[in-house]
Amino acid sequence: MKKYIAFLFLVFTISVNSQSNFKKFFKLSGPIKSWVLFHPFKATKALKISEEASKVSDSIKKTNLLDGDDSGGQVDAFRHAYWMARLHQEIGESAARSLGKAHEKENYLTFKKWQLEEGVVPDEISSKMDLYNNEQGLKLISRESKVSKKGLIYRVLNAIKEGEMKIIKKDEKGDFLTCDGNLILKESLKGKWENNKCLISSEKNKKAILIK
What we know:
The chain is mainly alpha-helical. It has helices at 2-17, 19-25, 30-38, 43-61, 74-91, 93-113, 124-139, 149-161, and strands at residues 166-168, 199-201.
């Protein structure tokens, strides 16, 4: 009954605010829909922040601030950490964390259906990386903090430069490596949720970016 009441409220809220948001709800995966049903008052704000995080990370990718790698690299780490930090700031730590976990459940379903996420099929190591970076992002700010978006961006960039995030080990060509530095053949990764990719520190250059 509580879920049904929450759903009715959600339908009313979304239909009043935006017909497009109403349509978006029914396109969501099961895990994300469940999160929305339990957080009807925060869903619209979370959607806006999610879109914001994608736009900001796309902009960062075009600069030389990070490695330009949005699939297992520093840009990927930035996207997740910034997303969680902004969510924490606006909707609280618990709601933010649970949305991050729902997203990773969604990624597993994506793997099962063999769909693409950020250009590649998600796997277990990518999920572990995301969850780790989510937690680091949550630590960078508190709810209702007055830190500006620009200031938060620099916090995340510094954390990545200091090695506080995780990325997936690759060679200069972008091919995946094991923790021992051995090349992982792409053919060996097909159709496998578990593999021998390796998580490493996000630190590639000790020089930190000054917070402005």
